[in-house]
Amino acid sequence: MPSAVKINALCELCHCRKAVMRRPKNLQKLCKECFIHVFETEIHRTIQREHLFYRGESVAIGASGGKDSTVLAAVMKTLNERYDYGLHLILLSIDEGIVGYRDDSLATVKRNQSQYEMPLEIVSYKQLYDWTMDEIVACSGIKSSCTYCGVLRRQALDRGALKLEVHHVITGHNADDMAETVLLNILRGDTARIEQSVNITTNSQGSPVKRSKPFKYAYEKEIVLYAHYRKLDYFSTECTYAPEAFRGTARTLLKNLELVRPSCILDIIHSGEQLKLKHKRRNASSEMEVRSNGSVSLPNKDGNRCERCGYLSTNRICKACILLEGLEINRAKVQIDGTSVDGAAKLTKTLEHLAF
Ligand code: SF4
């Protein structure tokens, strides 16, 4: 919510309306109208500077019903009309199968569909993998839930996009998410991932679908303010399977730093952009890359297909299939003797040393 502003302060941009907030990014005193305009304009400039879209492109908006993706849909609709981008925008939702969380948030996305007049496609884990997240957690515990979910969602988004014949998915990842990931990678010593974590556009290995983050420089607090001032309809309950503890610690650290120095979020992103690994140890003959954390990427090329599911993968077996195999081992073990060998968790470890 906006910080308190003296009642007689005027907006520092229009100099005629009363300021109602201090902008979280730079503490500028603004009225509601100027804040909305400046927020949208900055997103438009990011889109232009980074050449994110081309005219006539079909773009799927990863829509969860949460604040980030709801604001993304609202802003993209506004900018597409205001600046005549000529984009065909579609909402693409993933149903992970989390009762009491995703079913409620999908109800919000369905309302957004009519509010923003965009087509909606929903792809579920159950359809794609024959597992829901609730079943995965029941089988393997809550500890690695986000690891499973992340791997399965990446592939589900790709598959959903290809079903729509769309090759570009945009997501509501914001500046706080990016800075948090940079911090997390530094705290883990995983320097190999820092550069990639601040890219505005990425491709999963082997995937023909690119992902972009138009909110790369947008502060989370400003996204909340924008949703508040435009009275957007979004879902604010946290997932039942809370994010892992270490990420939560990095988030708290970032929030504390932001209190002292609001620009630190952009500063961390900027640092991530400047950090280039000097040497990547690469075995030229085998094309096997050894990363700084000791993990390796296997010597397969883009365009290969997973031997199990047939989906595009740079490895012989795709990451989703490796996880699902672990889950099947666990389920069988539980059925036979009522105990879990945590086979999936072991495979998660294996996975971390593959091509992430
Ligand atoms: Fe999936 Fe974890 Fe997000 Fe829940 S918090 S939706 S389990 S990634």
Helix and strand arrangement:
Blueprint: E1 21-22, E2 29-30, H1 32-49, E3 58-62, H2 67-82, E4 88-95, H3 102-116, E5 120-124, H4 125-129, H5 133-140, H6 145-163, E6 168-170, H7 175-188, H8 194-197, E7 201-203, E8 210-212, H9 220-229, H10 245-260, H11 264-274, E9 281-283, E10 288-290, E11 296-297, H12 319-337, H13 343-352
Bound molecules: iron/sulfur cluster (SF4).
GO biological process, one term: tRNA wobble position uridine thiolation
Keywords: ATP-binding, Cytoplasm, Nucleotide-binding, RNA-binding, Transferase, tRNA processing, tRNA-binding
Domain tRNA(Ile)-lysidine/2-thiocytidine synthase N-terminal: 59-243
Low-confidence stretches: 281-300
Q: Number of domains in the coordinates?
A: 2
Q: Using only CA atoms, what is the Rg?
A: 22 Å
Query: What small molecules accompany the polymer chains?
Result: iron/sulfur cluster
CATH class of the largest domain: Alpha Beta
Give the helix/strand class: alpha/beta
How many angstroms separate the termini? Answer: 37 Å
Level-2 CATH architecture of the largest domain: 3-Layer(aba) Sandwich
Sum up the overall morphology in one term.
Answer: globular
Number of strands: 11
Instruction: State the strand order across the main sheet.
Output: 5-4-3-6-8-7
What would you say this structure looks like, in words?
The protein has 356 residues and is an alpha/beta fold. It has 2 domains: 32-279, 3-Layer(aba) Sandwich (Rossmann fold), CATH 3.40.50.620; 286-356, no CATH class. Helices cover 46% and strands 11% of the residues. It has helices at residues 32-49, 67-82, 102-116, 125-129, 133-140, 145-163, 175-188, 194-197, 220-229, 245-260, 264-274, 319-337, 343-352; strands at 21-22, 29-30, 58-62, 88-95, 120-124, 168-170, 201-203, 210-212, 281-283, 288-290, 296-297. The strands form 3 sheets. A 6-stranded mixed beta sheet has the order 5-4-3-6-8-7. Strands 9-10-11 form a 3-stranded antiparallel beta sheet, with no helix packed on it. Helix 2 (67-82) links the parallel strand 3 (58-62) and strand 4. Helix 2 (67-82) crosses helix 9 (220-229). The protein starts with 20 loop residues before the first strand and ends with a helix. The model is unreliable at 281-300 (pLDDT under 50). Bound molecules: iron/sulfur cluster (SF4).
